[in-house]
Design brief:
The chain has 451 residues and is mainly α. 68% of the residues lie in helices and 4% in strands. The protein contains 17 helices and 4 strands. The strands form 2 sheets. It has a two-stranded antiparallel ribbon. Strands 3-4 form a two-stranded antiparallel ribbon. Strand 1 and strand 2 form a beta hairpin. Helix 6 crosses helix 7 and helix 14 runs parallel beside helix 16. The radius of gyration is 22 Å and the shape is globular.
Length: 451
């Protein structure tokens, strides 16, 4: 077959260009596929809390397997010493905690889940993301996923097909359903943090404008999620990103953002009263808390009580539900109401303290908490140091803002949430992106960063 020479002025063959783009993306494609799996519907009324049986979980296992096979074939040392230490800290700690589980199935389920979220998937993402080009691809994938889930959430609000909130089926939950009301807000918040980072320090003006437009669009579904914790974490992180991007324009951007928020909130019509009531409830969490806040306080107190009885190793992996009633006060309700978004009304039991730090502390003890949180703290410190380097060199600042922003958001989010539900797999991807920026030598390498 004769190959014709290329002539100047001729457009490249779309098929050839597509193949080249796929070949260029290469190893990061499994990560993009994993992100895309979170856009699939789980089925009306399905409850995957704690089951680990979602398509995204299966794909995450394939991503890890692909990464292992690729590392063996390349015959090279995949991680640095620092990465081995940071990602390896939870391995022994969680294994010791699993020995205290009340049954073998609970031990295995908890062990696999923690390793999946804290070790295996983050390590795979770290290895499959080769440079800042790949990092930006994953970041844009998170933006796209947030827009998809957010658009479904807005539709649910407008048509009254969302999860139940204040007696109306208006809560935006996307494809995650009424059993995981935090899922869509988490996905949208990830996309918003990525969009703000790309908008503040993107490589091209068009890219920056597009990212900022996406960020403004994601504010709407985030508001309609009625998730107070996600609002607080996202607001803190976005302000932090704007300040870190440059103090000169921080005031102007914050003023524009505040004006846009007023316009968007004012345009919700009948939803304004709901949003105002939800916003005002943030300041009432101590004076006049609602039942959900009371339940959370009660479970926090129960978790601390469990830890005080077993300070070193906790009560055992997956054992919080078994010890809850013996340590909780009578203020704890039987469960939370679940309805809407295709699910029939039922009471969902409260099986965790809804605080990642207290969950680890109560079930695994202080040793495991220090190991897990110590790894996150190390990534935050290393990422912040590289952010300062990127700012001085004017290179990779968008990646730095995204990575540090995502980790900061997650650390704030864990104060009122824990791992569980279909969206947890995406948390593992986020930890992988953060680990790449903080620990991979290629993060600041100009030779491979801009292809």
């Amino acid at each position: 077959m004769t190959v014709l020479p290329a002539f100047p002025g001729l457009r490249p063959d779309p098929v050839t260009a597509g193949r080249q783009a796929v070949r260029r993306a290469g190893p990061v494609l499994p990560v993009l596929l994993l992100v895309a799996m979170l856009g699939l519907p789980l089925g009306a009324g399905s409850d995957h809390e704690g089951s680990g049986g979602t398509p995204a979980d299966a794909v995450s296992g394939l991503v890890v397997l692909f990464c292992v096979v690729r590392a063996v074939r390349r015959k090279e040392r995949p991680l640095t010493r620092t990465a081995y230490v940071v990602l390896g800290l939870p391995v022994v700690a969680v294994a010791v905690a699993a020995l205290g589980a009340d049954s073998l199935p609970n031990a295995l389920e908890g062990l696999v889940r923690y390793y999946q979220i804290l070790v295996l998937v983050p390590a795979a993402v770290l290895l499959l993301v080769r440079d800042r080009h790949d990092f930006r691809l994953v970041a844009w994938a998170l933006v796209g996923l947030g827009l998809w889930q957010g658009s479904l959430g807005v539709y649910q609000y407008l048509t009254g097909t969302g999860a139940s909130y204040a007696g109306e089926d208006v809560r935006a939950v996307g494809t995650f359903g009424a059993t995981d009301v935090m899922g869509m807000s988490t996905v949208v918040a990830y996309g918003l943090v990525c969009a703000v980072g790309l908008g503040l320090a993107g490589r091209a003006p068009r890219e920056r404008v597009l990212a900022l437009v996406c960020a403004l669009g994601l504010v709407v579904p985030l508001a309609l999620s009625f998730s107070r914790g996600a609002w607080i974490a996202t607001a803190v992180v976005c302000v932090l990103q704007i300040v870190l991007a440059g103090l000169r324009r921080a005031g102007r951007l914050l003023a524009v953002g505040a004006a846009a928020a007023v316009v968007l909130v004012g345009g919700f019509g009948v939803g304004t009263s709901m949003l105002q009531e939800r916003l005002s409830s943030i300041t009432q969490v101590t004076a006049a808390p609602d039942q959900s806040v009371t339940d959370r306080y009660t479970m926090w107190a129960a978790a601390i009580d469990m830890w005080e009885e077993h300070p070193a190793t906790g009560v055992g992996l997956k054992n919080f539900p078994a010890y809850r009633d013996s340590h909780a006060s009578i203020a704890l309700s039987a469960g939370s109401d679940v309805a809407g978004a295709g699910a029939a009304f039922r009471r969902q039991p409260l099986l965790s303290p809804h605080n990642m730090y207290l969950l680890v502390l109560s079930e695994q003890g202080l040793l495991s908490l220090c190991a897990i949180v110590g790894g996150w703290a190390a990534m935050l410190v290393c990422g912040a140091r590289r952010l300062a380097t990127a700012h001085r060199a004017a290179r990779g600042l968008d990646c730095a803002l995204i990575a540090c922003g995502l980790l900061t958001w997650q650390l704030i989010d864990f104060a009122y949430a824990d791992i569980g539900g279909p969206s947890t797999v995406l948390t593992a991807v986020v930890f992988g992106l953060v680990a790449w920026w903080a620990l991979a030598p290629a993060a600041l390498s100009e030779a491979v960063a801009e292809r």
